[in-house]
Design a protein that fits this description.
171 residues; mainly beta; single chain; 7-stranded antiparallel sheet
Length: 171
């Protein structure tokens, strides 16, 4: 287990499904395997992927944002396809997302090196709250989905950021 957990379990970054927020991080993947970049999700029942909360993940060269009240029936999952610039193992990339609190997949935007990416919703059924008092995890989650590589310079805002206009240094 090589990820970090930050904060207490209560109150911090406890976004509702109607809250706007943005997450950014510098990543350097060493494999294309599924790995959590930044999460605040918690297993609350039995079964595969029984999470509640939010997760920003890297999966086979793509980025995904998950907002989950319950898996399968109450969630938004949005993924990039053919990100540009493409991920190359061993190269730094600045990745970011923003969510406008709309309760819809169309409210999620994903960026690589400050370039808005094409995305596709794989689930758009969020109708309930996503809050759960879990700790924020960087580079992994409590389910053991550790990011293979490095995650650094994590930033989280309680508002929508237009990452195409950000002043962050791009590797």
């Amino acid at each position: 287990d090589n990820h970090a957990e930050e904060g207490t379990e209560n109150g911090e970054l406890l976004f509702k499904s109607t809250d706007s927020y943005s997450i950014g991080a510098q990543i350097n993947p060493t494999t294309s395997h599924l790995g959590a970049i930044v999460t605040k999700a918690h297993t609350y029942g039995s079964g595969f992927g029984a999470h509640r909360g939010w997760e920003f993940v890297y999966n086979s060269g793509n980025l995904e944002m998950h907002l989950k009240g319950s898996v399968g029936t109450n969630q938004i999952v949005v993924a990039t396809y053919s990100p540009s610039p493409a991920f190359v193992n061993g190269e730094d990339r600045w990745v970011a997302m923003s969510y406008n609190g709309s309760g819809s997949a169309s409210g999620i935007k994903i960026y690589v090196n400050n370039t808005l990416q094409n995305t596709i919703p794989t689930s758009d059924t969020l109708t309930e709250d996503i809050r759960y008092p879990a700790k924020v995890s960087i580079g992994g989650n409590e389910g053991g989905t550790d990011f293979n590589g490095t995650v650094s310079n994590v930033t989280i805002y309680n508002r929508v950021i237009d990452w195409t206009k950000s002043i962050f240094n791009i590797p």
